[in-house]
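OP here, attaching both records as promised.
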Amino acid sequence: MNFVLQPWQLPFLTLAGWVQRQQQEVIEYLRTENQVLREKLGTKRILLSDDQRRRLAVKGKVLDRTLLSELGTVFTPDTILRWHRVLIAQKWDYTDRRQKKAGRPPLSEEIQQLVLRLARENPRWGYTRIQGALANLGHNLSDRTVGNILKQHGIEPAPERKRQTTWATFLKAHWDVLAAVDFTTVEVWTQNGLVTFYLLFVMELATRRVHFAGATANPNEPWVKQVARNLTAADDGFLLGKRYLLMDRDTKFSAAFRGLLAGAGEHAVRLPARSPNLNAHLERFWSSLREECLDQMILFGEKALRRAVKQSVLHFHHERNHQGLANQLIEAGSDVGRRTGAVRCRERLGGSLRYYYRQAA
């Protein structure tokens, strides 16, 4: 039987041939690309997610083993077929429908984390004390269960935990009576050239209030002793009501300086050597002072230095939000939170420090 090609069939055959040729070219390119990738990867293992394996397994099952081998895929036919068998096994997996084991259900992660939190924040609390605190929060656990949770997470019983008081725990216990003091330096141009000035700051840790205690190019013992007298003055001393003053082992904090503090009821807590993280709040203040003010200016004379520092301290107290205080101001004014009125900007030090507020109507 002879097949006669009709004139209207010629365009369709031409189109079909062109599509087949295009598909073959695409296949050849993909095969070459796979070969290049395999040469590049060498013996390195390719890690796939479950979803990626599933997609390849579904597509690979449609093709037989011979065709997969001819394509030169990155993954062998056996690997793709094994993934397909895993998919079949998962389809017929009914383990999630099995009857649950008898017995007490496991504790939720939330309750376990709560037990750990109470133990860590209260090193003197025993199992029974933690059990009572949990009952107050609506969780009825036995003291043995509390003990098991702590043991699983490597937390010692109360007699051992209370001997491991951390620095953070110490600070929190004395927060309202703690202050910190330290020096920082800044270079100032004077008639004698570039001179290093020493700035002394004291911080009230609970509120983050900062006191500029003084600036000098010669921080000798008479100078620091006078600073100690000013800080502990009976009428307006910044350290009134404080009992502990954190300081490093700088020789400028001499025995005479510490003696004057002790006479006023202030206990000097000398920090270990090379431990700036133990005075982190004051270190953070210095970082802000330098980045936002001192590093942006060339200071000519002590008077300009003192003016810049005082303006920075005012900004720090009244106009700068602090992340350590829930992003609040230390001393908020009446304009904070106002929703009406024109937005104004208060500038200090030529615009280096800015504060935005709403003007009262």
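Record two, same layout:
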Amino acid sequence: MTPFSRIFNKAPSPPASLPERVASLEAAPADVVAATALGSDEDELRIAAIHRLGDEVPLRALAGLAAAAEPDGAPVPAPVRQAAQARLAELIDAGTIDAAAFCADVERHPQTLSVVALCQDADHLREALGRITDPAVLGQIAVDSPSSRVRQLAATAIEDPAQLAELLKQARHKDKTVYRIIQQKCDALTAVQRQAEDAAREASALCASLERHATKPFDPIYAATLEVLTQRWQALATRPEADVEQRGHVALERCGEVIAAHDRELARLAAERAAEEHARAERERARAAEQQR
């Protein structure tokens, strides 16, 4: 081979390796870093670029919080999206991004929850969930969020019995932990309902006992029985419904009237006896006076 052929047929330089391309990002301008993160290169290179992004539109787009990040509109690869969300979480933990402002639009961007779930401060996720006012959105998050932690906390925040019953069916074959949380909440609501029903039955039965007692004539154990019924009525764990409460109040008043009527009768009889005793004493005095004359 001639010297000229060796010069003109020199082998091209091999392409830079992935570690070399990653290292080159250290000195790359911000627009190059952003373009790399948004590009279609290897996920590892894009993720390395993401770790160098600040709170910019490309980062939020890759995290699913802005317009489509892929040039062709294709879904962002899962590892890339997860890296973008983790980077946003780092910026929140560092105070570069205000957590409250970041979570302000959580109902329109549920992916916000996936970000704050990665924050070191667990309160950010609770605060974000607390901003959701639409129960339907909360229910969808409990079933469909990609973060198990988010699904579990969303399930814990749901209180509506009808919604819990519906979510129980949806979560049965999706997330065992969420299913267990919802099942426990349903069981607790059922227990509360049963307690309320038992309390209502107890109050109704006790009210009926008072009403029956109010129709009885006075007897030697009338007052003692009323005292026991009154103590039970006052000791009810929860107050009964308004109509039962009113019936019980009326029955107690009638029972009181029975005792008052009995007391009045005793007083009348006592007065009669006293009058008779007085009259007898007067007759005795008159007789004694007559004998002395």
